[in-house]
Design brief:
This protein is mostly helical. It has 11 helices and no strands.
């Protein structure tokens, strides 16, 4: 006895549907509601997106329309850097080179500023016009380095030359001062020698009856120019110390001794009693009073210096 074919039997029965429990049925309905709500939300979001895109396109069209109207308006009183300058240049100057080739002397302040601004922008942006303007001027890094080295070497050389010139000038000035001091020293030595010689001459001529001296003929212990007439005011302590080659202060005993001897020798020459007895009778009557005044002043100064 043959057995029945179970596969055919199962196929003929179809899909088995089991009955849901109340809880499963409630969960199934909830899932269906959620899917329906999500689908509705997707449709609403798409609609809102399409609406916002449409509004954005309308705004762009309105802005573009306003911009084109503004750019299309040309008023010479409006500064050129307001608005779309590139479109304005393209309208007035089809080739940017024509704009850059304008004569800046014919521009006002605003036009000149815009002209400079546009030229700088072209150069920074590496437009072809800049390549034409600056072609052949760009150098390699090595060339720039070599030129920098040459510049530094030239600066160092210039500094060395300047320093040498300063040192030479300083040396020349030092030599000039040295020669000046030597000339002054020789002049002072000559003046002191002349002072001593004049005293010897005056003392030797006291026996001559016709000799008459003026104030300036007296060998006063100061330096004075032959072109300038000496006065009593010239007889001061500083001038006398300078003439006698004495400093205002002394440090050693030897310096004190030399100072004292020179002051004493000069003091004895101008002592009022000796001067009156030896020379005053040879002084012209017109100059006797001023000579006495000068002698008294020299004696007072020498006396004060010897007391210090």
């Amino acid at each position: 006895m043959t057995q029945p074919d179970l596969s055919c039997l199962v196929a003929s029965m179809g899909k088995l549907r089991l009955k849901r429990t109340p809880a499963e049925e409630a969960e199934h309905r909830a899932r269906k509601r959620r899917r329906k709500d999500l689908k509705k939300e997707d449709v609403d979001a798409e609609a809102r997106f399409q609406e916002s895109m449409s509004m954005a396109f309308e705004d762009d069209e309105r802005v573009d329309s306003l911009e084109s109207r503004f750019n299309g308006y040309h008023d010479p009183d409006i500064p050129t850097h307001w608005g779309d300058s590139s479109s304005r240049r393209r309208r007035h100057f089809e080739d940017p080179d024509d704009y850059l080739k304008q004569d800046p002397s014919t521009m006002d302040e605003e036009e000149y500023a815009e002209w400079i601004r546009f030229g700088m922008y072209r150069c920074v942006s590496k437009f072809p016009v800049c390549a034409r303007f600056y072609s052949g001027t760009r150098r390699s890094h090595k060339d720039e380095y070599e030129e920098e080295k040459r510049q530094k070497a030239a600066e160092k050389s210039a500094k060395r030359r300047e320093q040498a010139i300063k040192e030479a000038a300083k040396k020349q000035e030092s030599e000039r001062r040295k020669r000046r001091r030597e000339r002054e020293s020789r002049k002072q030595d000559s003046a002191r020698d002349d002072y001593e010689a004049r005293w010897k001459t005056i003392l030797a001529a006291t026996q001559l009856p016709d000799t008459q001296y003026r104030f300036e003929d007296i060998p006063w212990p100061i330096y004075h120019s032959s072109s300038r007439v000496i006065t009593v005011d010239d007889l001061n302590s500083e001038a006398i110390l300078t003439f006698l080659s004495l400093s205002k202060t002394v440090d050693t005993e030897e310096e004190k001794r030399v100072r004292k001897d020179k002051l004493r020798e000069t003091y004895l020459r101008f002592h009022p009693d000796k001067f009156e007895g030896r020379l005053m009778n040879k002084v012209d009557d017109e100059y006797k009073d001023i000579v006495r005044l000068g002698v008294g002043q020299v004696v007072r100064i020498l006396n004060d210096l010897m007391q210090k």
